Amino acid sequence: MIPVLEAVGIQKSFGGVRALKGVSLDVRTGEVHGLVGENGAGKSTLIKIFAGAVAPDGGEIRLHEKRVEHLTPAKSKALGISVIYQQPALFPDLTVAENIALAHESQGAFRRIDWRQRNEHAAKLLERVGAAMRPQSRVSSLSMPEQQLVEIAKAVDAAARLVIMDEPTASLGDRDAKNLFRIVDELKKSGTAVIYISHRFEELFALADRVTVLRDGESMGTFPMPEMTNRELIRLMVGRDLDAVFPERNCAIGEPVLEVRHLSCASRGVHDVSFVLRRGECWV
């Protein structure tokens, strides 16, 4: 199978800091490819290089086996790469339909805009991605999950061949996250490649076919997701076993510092919650 994207020996330094030290990976058609690593491992720098926002110092990028040089944001977009960042890059004072249109309509100083067609087109895209909002809504009035859905609608509209999602569920609730998983599955079935960046391993095991692990700017390898475990992913990310990362400690538990009895809040879905938090305890 011909990879959609190949990165070979990508290097990048910022001043005296080497952010990427010869990172290589390939992403295949119809594949969800997980990308994991600790903060500072080089994930953000790598996807910015794919997006054309940052130029690498060395290495090679190939799209469908053709080498790509001097990648810019416009060129990356034209080649079918769409990046959905953790913070959506939308124009807050424009409507949803206008933001979507900016991503695909031809540009020109003198042209007639078919507002009805633009809004109808946006409405179909929003319905496809499960977004319950009006095309005429201003982006500034939308929640963060709703803005992410607009970004996804833009990627779908562009018929992107590679969609990169950076921590897409960080601000999503369970319902919105399930809808996102549905969209990822649809993209995969349509032949679109997806790079999925997340610290939530349960999402990777549910969605990813393979995973690439970065540590301190280096690739620790690419592995079939079914062959991985939480413990092995952590070992690859931090360079030591889980027991060494979180050694067992015996801590004395002290007197109560917080006690809650029969707490309820119907608007937040909280019903009859009781607990006691004691000095020396750490709850997750």
Task: Provide a descriptive summary of the structure in words.
- α3 (96-102) runs parallel beside α5 (144-157).
- The strands form 3 sheets. This protein has a 6-stranded mixed beta sheet with strand order 6-7-8-3-9-10, with helices on both faces.
- The protein has 3 domains: 3-80 and 160-245, P-loop containing nucleotide triphosphate hydrolases (Rossmann fold); 95-157, no CATH class; 252-284, no CATH class.
- Helices cover 30% and strands 30% of the residues.
- β4 and β5 form a beta hairpin.
- By secondary structure, the protein is an alpha/beta fold.
- The chain is built from 9 helices and 12 strands.
Spell out the key features of this protein.
284 residues; alpha/beta; Rossmann fold; 3 domains; 9 helices; 12 strands
